[in-house]
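Handout, tutorial session.
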Amino acid sequence: MDVYIVTGASKGIGEELYEQIRKTDSLVFGIARSNPKGYENFVEVDLTSRETRRGLMERLLTPYLATAESFTLINNAGTVEPVGKVGGLSTYALQQAIELNLTAPIELSNEFIGVLSKSKAKKQIINISSGAGRNAYEGWGIYCTTKAGLDRFSEVIRLEQQRVEYQVGIVSIAPGIIDTGMQKTIRSSDVDGFPMLEQFINYKEEGKLRSAEATAKLLIEWMEKEDLTTTDVLARLG
């Protein structure tokens, strides 16, 4: 049996990953702040809260240590907000974004690796990154920073895991421009705070956004064929 954990599983790519994986023989747990569709094997957790996310990996993984053939953590939950230029950002909003985009996946990955340290099963972490982590964009100071941090954290884990007997494979993958709620948030931004607004409106109008369903399908296919202990740790989805 293969065990998957998907964060941000109530909408967008996360929901599509959860839906497509659960239709296979694998066991998938969804994690999100809410579960509006009443999915099974779903944990309602506010990942911006350190108290509620503490011990989460241990609770989900421990029952399957003796039986699972593989464990996969997909750190997908994230937010593009706050959008705006540095100097006018809400302190609360930027703190929440850092918790969700960077601190939560760091803590979940740390616990995932720790709980599974003696397991001989296949183990892998997929961090959902962004081109914003590899390029600077005005108005996305926090988003760019947190995704860049996730990239570098993934690189460190890859180096560390090369020294252990039972490695955890890891990648930080940029999935491209996808037609999700995040894109709606971007298009509702103020041009003064986000000068690239018109470009992102054009992406939608010109049909350049890939669907969440198609993106999830591509990502699952990619995960199945790649060895996450040796493939490029900073990846892009074709």
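The second record follows below. Compare its token runs with those of the first.
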Amino acid sequence: MAKGASDSWRIGLLSALYNTPSSALRDINASARTLDQAQAQAAQAQVAASRTAPAAGGGASASAVADSLGSTSDSLVFTPKTPCRFIDTRNVGGAIGTTARAFDTFLFGNSYGGDSACTLPGAGEPAIAANVTIVAPSTAAGNITIRPAGSTSTTSWMNWFNLGAGALANAGIISTALNGSSHYGFEILTGGGTVQVIVDYFGYFSASSATALTCTQGTYETFSLAAGYNTFHYTTATCPGGYTAVSAYCYNNGNASVYLNGFGINGGAWCGWNNLTGSAVTVTQNVFCCQVP
């Protein structure tokens, strides 16, 4: 690639092409006759793709595209909750035995003997942080299983108990699954005998949603490149407090034979320039900054 070219020039070309929209690459392939032309067209294509020219100075302003964080398919986000009672079988339903009893987390707690204000957002949640208490077991030794709606598992033992044990509490995470009503639900059963069950929520795990970044930019800086200039320049533009530099902005102001040799944000936002016009020209630089809201 470009026999005799410096390593910085090669890296700059690769960086420019890598960050160029694929549609623009097809046009560059069809029209550029030299690698210098390809590099210049790539830099201009990046500018055209995401920025519009500012009112003054001949540079280009940016409308930074928001990035996002999180996965909506396999990441759960914990939200603490003021403790509330969702289930108290002493008030509604009676003791639970070996037949699984279903609970719908879309409903309010008074449906199951708990508090009328105890509920979860939306159709319930994929997992719940809860304190589970058993009261008045009817058998000498046993356990309860809490499992997602529709599960057939009997090995998720939440509480072991003995006859006359009184009350026994364990804290844990309850996994749920969508039930026939498309609500998140779970089931409780015993491994033998019957027992009263109390479930108090103290948090839940929700499917994550993409979080858009808040982005802005610094103040545009114009910089004069002397004839033959072939190095990098750090912009004087800085990010506001609380924001982090994510990209440099480099624009040759439409000057033919002024090429971008690369750009980055290590140590500040910088642009590498090569001025082959034979005279001094002005370029525009800036910095793009983002933060997680």
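Points raised in discussion: The first helix runs from residue 7 to 18.
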